[in-house]
Amino acid sequence: MPLIFLIILPFLGSLLAAVLPTNARNTESTLAGLIALGCAIQVAMLFPEVADGGVLRQEIAWIPALGLNLIVRMDGFAWMFCMLVLGIGSLVVLYARYYMSPADPVPRFFSFFLAFMGAMMGVVLSGNIIQLAFFWELTSLFSFLLIGYWHHRKDARQGARMAMTVTGTGGLCMLAGMLVLGHIVGSYDLDHILAAGQQIRDHHLYLTALVLILLGALTKSAQFPFHFWLPHAMAAPTPVSAYLHSATMVKAGVFLLARMWPVLGDTEAWFWLVGGAGLCTLLLGGYLAMFQNDLKALLAYSTISHLGLITLLLGLNSPLAAVAAVFHIMNHATFKASLFMAVGIVDHESGTRDIRRLSGLRSMMPVTATLAMVASAAMAGVPLLNGFLSKEMFFAETVYLDAAPWVRSWLPVAATMAGMFSVAYSLRFTADVFFGPPATDLPLTPHEPPHWMRVPVELLVLACLVVGTIPALTMDAFLRAAATPVVGGTLPVFSLAVWHGVNAPFIMSILALLGGIAIHCLLRWLRKAGHAEAAPIARHFDGRRFFENVLTWLQAGARRGRRMLSTMRLQWQMLWLVSLAMAAAIFSLWNRDLQLGNRGTLPVSPAFVLLWVMGCTCALAAAWKAKYHRMAALIMLGVCGLCVCITFLWFSAPDLALTQLVVEVVTTVLIMLGLRWLPKRDKNMRIPALSTQGRARARRMRDLGLALAAGGGMAWLAFAMMSRPFHDSTSTFFLEN
Fold it and tell me: What whole-number distance in Å separates Cα of residue 481 and Cα of residue 139?
């Protein structure tokens, strides 16, 4: 099957799902599941072709002259992301079949879901960076529709708008960066760009391209200081949250960072910008997660923190750190998707996600509780689970980093602190919800969900266990295939063994586990005392308040500008338009010496001079007569138009003359129809005061001066162009191109 079908099929399924009947929930979910699963099987069958650094590529000519062809490209890294998008997507579809209520507009849900899947596949498989930017913005658009799916809720509308504004603005910056990148390389083809890393890093526009592309990646992956939008996107249905925040939407940012690592990485600017954003996000997200009372909010901030970990790894300019980042992308997708779905089950069966109301669910939902505890242990980095392996690789990279002495000293401390936060909020997720006395004031009586609703969670938790216990057998080949394109083709030496002996990373893991348990116990004691209901530092990083204040300021400024500039009077509107046009022309010609050309001029024709003397006289008379006799002014205005028609004929342009004549006839007829409905002038009207007459005369003189300046300037520009030889004119360029 051609690779392009992997992008087209989800969009076709989206169109089909949109027209299905509202009560056909089984049909819609089956359609979405078959498309996702079928595409996943097809991608899995392509692994032997990309396993050893192979690249599959299909190109469709579109605008070859501009270097814009539709290119679908799959290497090992794209293969891995396709499996995440399609594999987890098929599990989420099965889960959504039981989660979504029959009262919801289910066709719209699966239509948006499949369209988002297609957009994400377009991002992953794009072999042209402009094509990638197009699908990138599509993911923002369809995530807006998914987050705002329950549009009757104010929080859903606000969260969708915030996500769209932040990620869409970042996407526009990224598009500008892609254009700069294409300018540096001379091509928008991803293969050409990946082969021109040194050329890009040595170019004087490197920093410009880097900052613009990072704005797109960091906003998409909710990195500091753009982290605030992701928690508010939790207003979406839980299947949407599980999909967008484990394998797709927020992973697009780190996908772009990893994709561009061989091109933009290995510089000081990359280290400080990417690594700095990742470190701040890692610590801030982990800290704020410990104080959340909503289960989805806790997972949202933990997602921010883990994305910060991946970003920090990619920012360390180390090939082994890049491999660890790719590995953690896989691991995070499995345990985070399972945790979101477990939260959805708890909410679906108990009627609330408030941790303060939930307690003792282990006795009422034993299977779900066990699955959630294993997944949260993987998130905390407990040994024999997949999260532990990538966390160990992360700790090792912070210890053995080749950087400034103070960075080498403090970065392991920060990494250990982030590990403590991870353990603390993972314990809050499990100990405070599934242990303790059974809750008695819940909206619903908790019980196990339908079996097939729990199957996706079981499969993902099984993956966490299998990868954590036998990583070399299960993940080594896939990780090598995925990491090879990221590091530029030559993999560093690494091992996926569970045990590497007692070393610095292992000691950091032990400290993180013990410290996280201590922090959790301390916070639990403070909550009982009523002193830990909120994180005080959160007020200083309230991005939502800043975002809403900026929007309010922009809207207020727009209203003030509209009141200041808008008017119902046509005269003032024309004054502003002509004045701004003249200002723009003067500004553009300020530093240019506009001289007449050396083309020979024809002798002056008395008949032509007489023609324009008559035309100018009629124009002035029309302006004067308009005050007293409207029909006479209209006739004189028509004479001016007739002079223009004769002028076009004089200069051998009969087509323009005919067009001008038709315009004059139509305009004259329309104005005559308008004059019929205007009120008649009152001959006995009161004579204005002398001061009013003076202001009117001054206004007319101002308008006359502006008209003469604008008309004279256009005449000068026209004469300056006509006095040049034909081969120097712009028309030659347009004829040739």
Answer: 26
For residue 412, the surrounding DSSP H or E stretch is helix 405-434
Strands 68-74 and 56-63 come out as antiparallel
Q: Burial of 710 by CB count in 10 Å (0-12 exposed, 13-18 middle, 19+ buried)? A: middle
C-beta separation of 92 from 50 below 8 A: no
pLDDT at 168: 92
pLDDT number for residue 570: 79
Q: Please give the backbone phi and psi of residue 56, each rounded to the nearest 5 degrees, phi first.
A: -95, 135
Residue 246 has pLDDT above 80, yes or no: yes
In the chain, the percentage of residues whose pLDDT exceeds 90 is 51
What are the distances in angstroms from CA 633 to CA 554, 620, 630, 675, 685?
A: 45, 10, 5, 11, 21
DSSP alpha helix (H) spans, 271-404: 276-289, 295-315, 319-350, 366-380, 386-399
Q: Is the dihedral of CA 39, 40, 42, 47 positive or negative?
A: positive
Please state, as a whole number, how many other Cβ atoms lie within 10 Å of the Cβ of residue 659: 13
Tens digits of residue pLDDT in 80-124: 999 999 999 999 999 999 888 877 888 889 999 999 999 999 999
Q: In what helix (H) or strand (E) does residue 73 lie, and over which residues does it extend?
A: strand 68-74
This model's pTM is above 0.70 = yes
Q: Return the closest-CA partner of residue 85 out of 329, 256, 299, 307.
A: 329
Task: Answer yes or no: are the C-beta atoms of 209 and 177 closer than 8 Å.
Answer: yes
- The DSSP letter of residue 272 is I
CA distances from 449 to 344, 345, 348, 429, 446 (A): 10, 7, 8, 19, 9
The structure tokens listed for 626 are 């308009």
Q: Are 219 and 169 spatial neighbours (Cβ–Cβ below 8 Å)?
A: yes
CA 448 vs CA 92, 178, 460, 461: distances in Å: 18, 49, 18, 17
- Secondary structure of 144-201 in the HEC alphabet? HHHHCCCCCCHHHHHHHHHHHHHHHHHHHHHHHHHHHHHHHHCCCEHHHHHCCHHHHH
The mean pLDDT value of the chain amounts to 88
Nearest Cα residue to 388 out of 396, 374, 398, 377: 377
Instruction: Report the distance separating Cα 222 and Cα 166, nearest Å.
Output: 9
Three-state SS across 613-643?
A: HHHHHHHHHHHHHCCCCHHHHHHHHHHHHHH
Per-residue pLDDT tens digits for 178-221? 999 999 998 899 999 999 989 999 999 999 999 999 999 999 99
pLDDT tens sequence across 411-423:
999 999 999 999 9
Distance CA 192, CA 502 (A): 44
Taking CB atoms within 8 Å and a gap of at least 24, the contacts of 513-516 are: 513/380, 513/381, 513/382, 513/419, 513/423, 515/416, 515/417, 515/419, 515/420, 515/423, 516/380, 516/419, 516/420, 516/421, 516/422, 516/423, 516/424, 516/426, 516/427
CB 46 within 8 A of CB 125: no
What lies within 8 Å, CB to CB, of 262 at 6+ separation is 194, 197, 485, 486, 487, 488
Whole-angstrom distance, CA of residue 47 vs CA of residue 76: 8
Coil, strand or helix at 294: strand
Contact 543, 228 (CB under 8 A): yes
Neighbours of 376 (CB within 10 A): 30
* 8-state DSSP, 385: S
Question: Which of 267, 319, 226, 276 has the alpha carbon at shortest distance from 410?
Answer: 276
Judge contact between 264 and 201, C-beta under 8 A: yes
- One-letter amino acid at 467 equals V
